Amino acid sequence: MVLGESMKNCPDRAFKPAHAAGRLLAPVLISLALMAGCDKASPDQAAAVQQQAEAQKQQAELQQQQLGIQKQFTESVNAADLAAVRTALSLYYNDHEGLYPENIEALVPQYLPLGIPFNRLEEHGKSNAVQNMSGEDFKAGRFTDAGGWAYVNTSADPMMLGRFVINCTHGSNINTLEGKPWTAL
Ligand SMILES: [Zn+2]
Known about the structure:
Blueprint: H1 5-8, H2 20-35, H3 43-95, E1 119-121, E2 125-127, E3 130-134, H4 135-139, E4 149-154, E5 164-166
Parallel strand pairs: 3-4
Antiparallel strand pairs: 1-2, 4-5
The structure holds zinc ion.
């Protein structure tokens, strides 16, 4: 800022808020003063600006906390939906003499009356798409990492059949899984 003749015309009174209303106006007055070429700020104004910055910081921290709570909530919903589909799979398995369905759609509506649940992942958004994969691909970690779910419907190893996970190799912050990929849940 070039300080010139306009400095001389700066009315000092305008920068000295003497009461609460004045303090609220202080940032505005300072902005106007700076625009007019005046940058003499009194300690009062400096305090007001700092208070305003502090209030903004607190607001930002609060928003950050709310986002954290939202994330935790989303993660527990994902975990609950994962558990619901796994329960549906084991019910199907029991009813079908030790066979898992060819695909997850086969669980709807009898075992999943509300359909295949949608999960919500920070990196992929909302999805209920299912990656069908072999047990060998599962063991090798060949997930498409596209969000939604991954399901092992073929395998040379019968022990691998019926695996069902969240199709995301990004890290989860869920309490029991700090930093591990969603697929490990
Ligand atoms: Zn991912």
